[in-house]
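hey m, so remember when u said the tokens were messed up on ur end? i reran from scratch. heres the input so u can diff it against urs
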Amino acid sequence: MTEYLNVGKIVNTQGIKGEVRVISQTDFPELRYKKGNRLTLFQADKQPIELIVKSHRKHKNFDLLSFEGHFSINDVEKYRDGILKVEKTDGNELPENEYYYHQIIGLTVVTATGETIGKIKEILSPGANDVWVIARSGKKDVLIPYIESVVKLIDLNKGQVTIELMEGLIDED
């Protein structure tokens, strides 16, 4: 079975010429949305469909895309809330110490002293650095910034991330 990686969510249309607004979930928008690239659109209760990128541009916090064979707002309106994906095999080799979101989500987070914090359930990209949402059993989620002073080691083989616990990072409730 083919595995897919999320690259963005279509949140709305843009103008009347068949463009859609995408909230990107990829570190490589220039690569993923390049003219001629194939994206697979997944929507609830519908068969996935393949779309070919006709154009891409940035506008505010959105990536604006148009697709071959889609010339008006009427052609793309039905794609709203759809998730754009690429086949996992299309993933690029990353430089050392860089990871895809799917590699990080699900890893267990432990402190340098060996205490287990929880599992990474989501990655937020609010600004200068990513923030990892860590689900803890019976407690509130913890937000950990993905910065060198906090994240000390990512071991994909062990399925584990080691962090340096800074004061005030975790509420004990």
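this time it looks ok to me. The CA atoms of residues 22 and 63 lie 5 Å apart. if urs says something different then somethings off w ur setup not the seq
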